[in-house]
Amino acid sequence: MSLTNTKRLVIKVGSALIAPQQDGCKARYLLNIAQFIVRARAQGVEVLLVSSGSVAAGAHHFKNPDRSNIAIKKAMAAAGQMEMMSTWDRFFDFPSAQLLMTHADLRDKERYESIRQTLFSLLDEGILPIINENDAVTTEHLKVGDNDNLSAMVAAAADADTLIICSDVDGLYDQNPKTNPDAKLIKEVNTITSAIYDMTGGPNSAVGTGGMRTKLEAAEKATSHGIATYIINGFDESTFNALLDGDNPGTLFTPFKNPMEEAQHWMTHTAAEHGELVVESEGLQNSEELNCEEILSVEGEFSAGETVLIKNTKGERLAKASSNYSSCLLNFITQNTDGINTSQMQNSIGPIISKNDIAVLERKQS
Fold this sequence. Notes:
It is found in: Cytoplasm. Keywords: Amino-acid biosynthesis, ATP-binding, Cytoplasm, Kinase, Nucleotide-binding, Proline biosynthesis, Transferase. The protein is α/β, with parallel strands linked by helices. It has 2 domains: 3-265, 3-Layer(aba) Sandwich (Carbamate kinase), CATH 3.40.1160; 273-360, PUA domain (Archaeosine Trna-guanine Transglycosylase, Chain: A, domain 4, Roll), CATH 2.30.130.10. It contains 13 helices and 13 strands. It has helices at 15-18, 27-42, 54-58, 70-89, 103-107, 109-124, 147-157, 194-197, 212-223, 237-244, 262-269, 327-335, 342-349, and strands at 8-13, 46-51, 96-101, 128-133, 162-167, 188-189, 228-233, 251-253, 276-279, 295-299, 307-312, 317-322, 358-360. The strands form 2 sheets. The chain has an 8-stranded mixed beta sheet, sandwiched between helices. It has a 5-stranded mixed beta sheet with strand order 10-9-11-12-13. Helix 2 packs parallel to helix 10 and helix 7 packs parallel to helix 9. 40% of the residues are buried.
């Protein structure tokens, strides 16, 4: 796996690189990243930039801000977004475009497709998309929460083949390198298992919201879509030179040999769960669809066509799927089956979940 074979990449830059002291955007680290983007484009690589940092960039406009006040943080994000975009734009001699989005935009299939088409149109015209979560308007219910995972969703939406996530360490270590001098850098990860997740702790950065765990979550999303993912040290200029030379300066997460299809990936990693269907513990083992007699209970409220989680009686997550029926109708069916011929009912209403609308969730191995 080499960046020299990349045709389209997404690079994610965090708050600590944008505004290290939270007193406005600084060019110290961003210049190296901007030069990397320019050189990558000169090599024929299409680039998308996911940039955190609006809150950190806007903080200096507020006197003694109360950071526990959500409204204040949103205002800081609104002020900082302008400064951040102007900072990026002055590094380039080609046009850039701002895209602000929330999880609600990504998890709605129609809006998700709209985002895809916008990204493709920008890339076709040689315009650099600069993407950030819309912190000024998002709520807890609607936000992605961190730009590591957002970058993976964007990479999938853009059909990228490489995702680069900038960190403040060289990559994934077997232990925290900031507290353990014997920590060893893991150069390549072929499968993200529970043991890999166990290597991560809390956030390493005092500025950003994403620690190594969210970077692993992003890598898992991206690699399942066939996207090679790097975690690199964004503070080190030599890192970007190595990438352009086709070397691996950090940790490479290799992509799945048989990636998920676009619809399956969107349902698994992006679509929100509006409710739950509980089935027998061994349900879905060999099933391509889900019928009414297999459902033990219905939890939550959802409409026909919305995504639901399918779990077993042990509480294990089995799959995500688009329900053909609303929770109201499913509750009526499951609670009124006494004396009813279930085969006749099935013939009458058809499958609850169709085989093309289900994404079975893989369970991580230790």
